[in-house]
Amino acid sequence: MYKVVKCFEFEAAHQLINTHTDKCKRIHGHTYKLEVELSSQELNENGMVLDFTLMSQQIEELVDDFDHVLIVKGNEDQILMMGEEFLYDTDKRQNHTIIYLKEQPTAEYMCRLFFDYLSAFNHFPITRVRLWETSNSYAEYIKD
Ligand SMILES: [Zn+2]
């Protein structure tokens, strides 16, 4: 199995209402580090799983949308803006300052969202998404 991993960073604020930690209930920020892993049994005609540059272009669009925003759990009306399964409707992509998610924006949930979004819209052979919230804490979503 061949694997390639590309890393990205973005700065964002979030708020976790349902938590035992008082600090997390406040709006606070992280320098998130996102790792996206693609896997393949075979290499393509260029000897790659996928060109790193092509991988970057697609994922950076998503990362840019999450850079310097506030990420919170939204209500029904706000969630409609995002589309059913994914973060938001790509046709309605604009300069968001707040991104509303269906669930509270834990690192675990954001991993799953990034995984589903990138898998569906880019058809990348994604096998793992890891999101670092601090220098010693990350969550992962791995393809079954
Ligand atoms: Zn946090």
Please provide a written account of the structure.
This protein is of the alpha/beta class and 144 residues long. It has a single domain (2-142), classed as 2-Layer Sandwich (Tetrahydropterin Synthase, Chain A). The chain contains four helices and six strands. The chain has helices at residues 22-25, 52-66, 76-80, 107-122, and strands at 2-14, 28-40, 69-73, 98-101, 126-134, 137-142. Strands 4-3-1-2-5-6 form a six-stranded mixed sheet. Strand 5 and strand 6 (137-142) form a beta hairpin. The longest helix is centred in the last third of the chain and has 16 residues, at 107-122. The protein is elongated and about 50 Å long. Mean pLDDT is 85; it is low at 80-92. The structure holds zinc ion. Zinc ion is lined by residues 14, 24, 28, 30, 133.
Name a few traits of the molecule:
144 residues; alpha/beta; Tetrahydropterin Synthase, Chain A; six-stranded mixed sheet; 4 helices; 6 strands; binds zinc ion
Per CATH, the superfamily is 6-pyruvoyl tetrahydropterin synthase/QueD
Q: What is the CATH topology descriptor?
A: Tetrahydropterin Synthase, Chain A
Helix and strand run: EHEHEHEHEE
Number of helices: 4
Which structural category do the helix and sheet elements fall into? alpha/beta
CATH architecture label:
2-Layer Sandwich
Strand order of the largest sheet: 4-3-1-2-5-6
The rounded distance between the terminal residues' Cα atoms is 15 Å
* Tally of strands: 6
Q: Mind describing the biggest β-sheet?
A: 6 strands, mixed
CATH class: Alpha Beta
What Rg do the Cα atoms give? 16 Å
Unreliable runs: 80-92
Ligand kinds: zinc ion
Can you give the helix content as a percent range?
25-40%
Gross morphology is elongated
Q: How many domains? A: 1
